[in-house]
Amino acid sequence: MINVRDAMRQAAKWHKNRLAIVSGDQRLTFEQAWDRGLRLANAFASLGLKPQDKIAVLEDNCLEASDFLLGTAIGNYVRVPMYRKNAPEAHAHMIRNTGCRALVVDKKCLHEVEGIKEVVDCLEHVIVRDENYEAWLATFDNTDPDPDIDISDYYIIRHSGGTTGLPKGIAFTHNAWMNMERDWTYRCPTIEAGDCAIHVAPISHGSGFLFVPLWIMGGYNVLEPGF
Questions:
Q1: Rg of the chain on CA atoms, in Å
Q2: Which residue ranges in the chain fall short of pLDDT 70?
């Protein structure tokens, strides 16, 4: 069984000149998207974050959302997606519950987590994606950090809706995620290079189950902020 990072890195090499990401009028090849993921992984490392550290994210679909998905996989960090429009207390609970050391938040979502560092002891870094993000990302090296990844390492921790109490963390290892990707696409038409998935729901939620299969097979992901 291959881990998520190795499968995605292999595809990035095989399909480097193919279209990989579309967001509005922005278009990235596999090589360009992977380069941005490498830089973000090294940006996280520059903050002292280590492989298997948990990093939360609060965002809608955008080009930078693909940076985060790729960068966390590349650095063997554990993604912890937040849910837009949750109460601040729910965001704080999810971050505290998973022990996230960092939070990446889009500028337009910042009001949802204002002051969160003061109430969550484990949270050390809040990275705001604003007008300075592109220049900040470009300052980091695009060398592959290539950390060891075991298929039993965690890949993502999602949360339940909290309908019967506080949201509960649901952890997926690399092995579990790759098995689930296989199961998700088993009954779908065969995905081939050049195929497309349009994501109108957040890739940090259910729609994200199709991001990796499209990437691995050389297709491209269109990231829409809403329907």
A1: 16
A2: 162
